[in-house]
Amino acid sequence: MLSKLSVRSLLSLTALSCFGLSQGQDQALMAKIRSIPRVVEVKVAEAKFGKDNLEIMFEQPVDHAKPKGAKFQQRLILHNAGPNSPVLLGTEGYEAGRLYGGELKTILGDPNQLTVEHRYFAKSMPSPVEWKYLTVKNAADDMHDIVTAFKQIYSGKWVASGASKGGQTALFFKCYYPNDVDATVAYVAPINIGQEDPRIYRWLNTVGDEATRQKIRDLQIGFLKREDEILPLLNAKAGDYSMGTNKAYEYGVLEFPFALWQYGTKPEGLPAPDAPSADLVKAYRQVNAMFYYSDAGIKMFQAFMYQAFTEIGYYNYDIADFKPYLKANPNPTNMDLLPPGTKDGIVYNPATLAFVYNFLQYKADNVIYVYGETDTWSSTQMELIGRTNAVKILVKGAYHNASIRLASPEQKESVISAIEKWMGMPLKRL
To answer: What is the pTM of this model?
Structure first.
C-alpha cells in the first residue's frame, strides 16, 4: 500500500534559542508566525520531529469552495533556517510522522523545512467528519493557502516534495497551483488512471521472469491450502480483526506479491509451498500484509482508501488462480477498507486524474519524478512525452525506496543540475 499546531503565549528562551538568533530576533520571528492569518497555535514539536522544531496548527476551511463554512486545524512542522534560505515543503500524503527532509535537505544545504500533514489524518481531522470534502482539489487548496501564508516570512526559493502518496500530493498541488513553488520533486508517486488501474495487473504479470512469478503464485496457493495450519502460528488476535482473522489472512495472501515487489523482498529466498510451516509463517510475515486488514490498519489508511476509490485510483486482485481456495473471502474487494458507512455511496470521479495526467504531460514544468525499477507502483508511473522540461529517472535495482542518492551518476547529475537551473542557485551534490 501506498507505501500511507499550537502558539501558547510565549515559548521559553531556551526553546526559542533553536533559531540561532538573539533573544530579540527570536521574539520577532515568533511574533511574525503568530501574526500570520489563520495560525491558531505554535509550540515546540514532539521529540520525534527533531530537536527544537515547531508544531503549528493552521486553520483551514473544510471545503475551500465555502471559505466561511466549517473549519478544521491542519498540523505543520517547521524547522527554521532563516528568512532568505530556501524552503523544502514536505507534502505528506498521510500523518506527519516526521520532519520531511532526507537527501533534499542535503542537496539544498540546510533549508527551512515546512512539513504539512494531509487533511483527514491524525491531528488534521475535521470534526464532524464529512468524507465528501476529502478531495484532491481541497488538499491542493490547503497547500496553496499555507505556502501563500508562509511566504510572508520566507522569501527564498521553494521546493515541494513528497514520497509515495506524499509525492502524489506534491504533483496534485503542482497541477492546481503551478507557480506556487520553484521546483517539485516527487518520489515513487503513481498516477493512476482508473479506480482499478489495469496497468498494475499487467505489471505483476510481467515483472521478473516466469519462473519467479510462478514460484510466488505457488507459494500463495500454499498459503491458502495450509491456512488452518499457518494462521494459528501468526498469533493474530480475533479482537483486532472485525472482518475476521480468516478473511484478513486471505486478503494478506492476495496482497502478498504486490507488497513483495513494492518493498524489495527478494523472491529468490521464498520457500516452496510444501516447506515446513515455520518457513511459510516467516515468509508471510515478511511483508506484514495482514495488518492492513486489521481494525488498526483500516483506521490508519481509511482516508487514503476513500481518496483511492473516489479520485486517485487503486487496485483489486486477480483471483483466477486462487478462487478455489478462498474460503472466508470468495469475493475480495479493497473497498472493504473504506471508512465505515461509505462503501455503498462511493462514486469514482475520473475527471480529477484525467486533468492531472494531462496537465503533468503538457504543462507541468520544473518537476522531477523518481521511480524504482522493481516497485509495484512504478506500474503506474507518470509517462512523459517531451512537452515539458520535467526530468524522470527510473532507479535500477530500487523499489519503493528509490532516491536520487541510489541513482546512477548520470541520473544524479541530470536531476540536481535541473533543480539548480530552476532555482537559480548552486546546490550540493550527493
So the answer is: 0.93
